[in-house]
Every structure is written in structure tokens, then in C-alpha cells.
Amino acid sequence: MSGENESVTYRVEDHVAVITLNRPEQRNALNFDAYDRLERAFRQAVRDPDARCVIVTGADPAFCSGDDVREIMAGPKPAIPPPPTVRHAPTPAAMAALECDKPVIAAVNGAAVGWGMELALYADIRIASEKAKFAELFIKRGLTCDVGGFYRLPAIVGPAKAAELLFTGDVIDAEEALRIGLVREVAPHAELMDRARALAARIACNPPL
After folding, report:
1. What one-character DSSP code corresponds to residue 95?
2. For the segment 50-60, what is each residue's pLDDT rounded down to a tens digit?
3. Domain 8-73+90-204 classified CATH 3.40.50.2300?
4. Between the chain's N and C termini, which has fewer beta carbons within 10 Å?
5. Considering the entire predicted model, what is its pTM?
6. Which of 114, 184, 124, 115 has the alpha carbon at shortest distance from 152?
7. Type and span of the H or E element at 11
């Protein structure tokens, strides 16, 4: 269990672990601390014998707006800049999410853009609030996405639609996400976590092995 003031919180109730990005004033943008805590939260879920299913979400009003560019750009720089090529290895937080051996549900309560969309893609199941928005914004900043966009997105929505989203950086709403198969369902905003918890409970009641 983690504190209310932490950038990422972890709680378990009825065998469901809830990982919450908790920087609402920054629309849950990820700085170095949040990336580190997110990685640790997924690792904790793997080790936690009480956790049989995981929900990842954000403190309203957003799911995750990607990198906190201001803080990250102000942070320490590598001695030798990396070459401008496609990233070959997932980031540590991405690897922790991908290696989580518990079923993961993303309860997308608002904007899931940039690395926030990557995080949603790492989940096994995505449920969207009617207020959700999705975008692979990396192209707008001359960057490449993480492995979510390269590998998970084409598998979920098909290669052509994935290429369109990656090459344009277009923002799509919850209904469009449902139409292309990116999300399982669209819920009224006030019901999102109840829907996610109900599904998680159905999963968690099965034998964990």
C-alpha cells in the first residue's frame, strides 16, 4: 500500500491490485519519479500473493498525458547522446508492465496520449470512459513510440490502422477506439471503475495458477 502523496499509488482489495497514476495537476504526466514508481508497482503486483488481477488507471481528469517534458528535459542528460534510431529495448516501466504475470485491465478515464497510450496498450483489456482520448503523439515531436505502438497496437487494431495512428499522431475519442477494437467497452465516466472492478473480480475468482 502506498501513500496518497506519491506519484503512483498501489492498493489491493479483494485480490485486485489498483495502480493509480497520481499527478492529477499534471494530468498524470510521468516524470522520473513516476516512471520509477510505476515500474516498482508492476513488480510489486507480480510478487504480491494477494493480487490476482491488476487495474491501472489515473487520478482524474486524465489517464496519462505521457512524459512530463519540462521535468525530464531539465533532468540529467547522458554523457553521449543516443543515436536517433528506433528504440530497440523497452523502457524499464514498459518491461515491468509487459512482464506482469497477472491479468491487467486499463481503466482509461481521460487522455491516454504519448506514453500514456503505450501504457494502455500494455494492458490485456482496456475499458474507456466516455471522456477518454487516445493518441500516439510521438510523431508530432519527432520521436518514436515504445514497444506498445510498434507491436501491441498492430496486433489489436490491425497494421493499416496502427500505421495511420502512428504516422499522423491523430487523436481519437472513446467511440472511435471502440469501433476499431482498441477498447472492450465505453462506460459512463462515473461508472468506469465499477465496471473495471467488476471485470477484475470475475477474473480474480478463478484459480490463480
Report:
1. H
2. 999 999 999 99
3. no
4. C
5. 0.91
6. 124
7. strand 8-13
